[in-house]
Design goal:
The chain is α/β, with parallel strands linked by helices. The protein has helices spanning 82-85, 123-132, 161-170, 194-209, 239-251, and strands at 6-17, 22-29, 42-48, 54-60, 69-75, 94-101, 112-118, 146-152, 174-180, 190-191, 231-237, 259-263. It has two domains: 6-101, Elongation Factor Tu (Ef-tu), domain 3 (Beta Barrel), CATH 2.40.30.10; 112-263, Rossmann fold, CATH 3.40.50.80. The chain binds flavin-adenine dinucleotide (FAD). Flavin-adenine dinucleotide (FAD) binds next to strand 4, strand 5 and helix 1.
Length: 265
């Protein structure tokens, strides 16, 4: 079946990190009045390469639904095709898009959430946070505890850092934990990989709530689709990190349905 393609026009482009060649893109879908998607979903972008071959790549939407607009966060991958084409796209140019796609979305009913990202894996998580804590709309977080553990090598690679810090300053149930694996001496925040901070959050939470760790498996008489958890993890980034965090949580007895993830490679 032929997929439905839309024309997305680039209306604004901001550099998030010169060191990483990471850009934030604002697109408008000219064919649509409204683009309906769920925060966490992605779009497929299409373009022809120098041999005339059609290339398609997935990019997570980095914004909450907003009319016919959507935003992306893309960094340059060395010798990659699409991630080098996009930063050079001039404002006013158009690109073909289809979507939305994907299931990396917040599970309902909404629960406590452990958000874990590295690099541009932050894109769908920014969409969650815009939706949960809109700057001029209703707070949808229902007072649930939400942790964001965001890992990068250097501070310049913590995209949207000020924005997340501002949300944390406004909402006491949102805990922003940026961590650097190659922090300079002057960095006063967290250090190391995301895994060690995820471990601390899980252990401290279990101790606070008086829960055993590893947590006991759910009642086997409950069908998997009916399982209800009081916390979910949402992990996005490159496979090595995603696999590491999944293994860690599984080791604590977390159920596979409690661990939602998106891998970029
Ligand atoms: C569901 C989904 C959502 C995604 N969302 C985003 C997003 O929001 N932002 C974003 O920047 N990327 C995202 N990606 C990755 C994106 O689809 C491309 O893979 C990436 O931009 C590289 O494409 P390219 O054409 O430049 O490289 P290619 O020409 O496809 O590959 C060039 C080389 O880079 C390696 N490579 C491929 N992807 C990556 C990567 N992500 N990091 C490091 N090396 C890589 C390949 O193995 C290959 O050796 C997403 C991927 C998926 C599956």
């Amino acid at each position: 079946m032929a997929r439905e393609l839309y024309t997305a026009r680039l209306v604004r482009k901001d550099c998030l990190s010169e060191a990483d060649h990471c850009f934030h893109f604002h697109f408008v879908l000219e064919d649509l009045e409204s683009f309906s998607f769920v925060p966490g979903q992605f779009v497929s972008l299409l373009a022809r390469d120098e041999n005339g071959k059609e290339q398609t790549r997935a990019y997570s939407i980095a914004s909450a639904p907003d009319g016919n607009r959507f935003e992306l966060c893309v960094n340059r991958v060395e010798s990659g095709f699409f991630s080098n084409l996009l930063p050079d796209l001039p404002v006013g140019a158009a690109i073909q898009v289809d979507g939305p796609h994907g299931y990396f979305t917040l599970r309902q009913p909404f629960t406590g959430s452990l958000l874990v990202a590295t690099g541009t894996g932050i894109a769908p998580i920014r969409a969650y946070l815009q939706w949960l804590f809109p700057p001029d709309g209703p707070n949808r977080s229902q007072g649930k505890e939400i942790w964001l553990v965001y890992g990068a090598r250097y501070e310049t690679s913590l995209y949207y850092h000020q924005e997340f810090a501002a949300i944390a300053a406004r909402h006491s149930n949102f805990h922003y934990l940026p961590t650097l694996s190659r922090a300079p001496q002057s960095w006063t925040g967290l250090r190391g990989y995301v895994q060690q901070h995820v471990a601390r959050i899980v252990e401290e939470r279990a101790a606070r709530l008086g829960l055993p760790l590893p947590q006991p498996p759910p009642d086997p008489s409950i069908p998997a689709r009916e399982l209800r958890f009081d916390i979910y993890a949402y992990i996005c980034g490159l496979n090595e990190m995603v696999a590491g965090v999944r293994a860690l949580l599984t080791g604590y007895g977390w159920h596979r349905k409690q661990i939602v993830f998106e891998r970029y490679d």
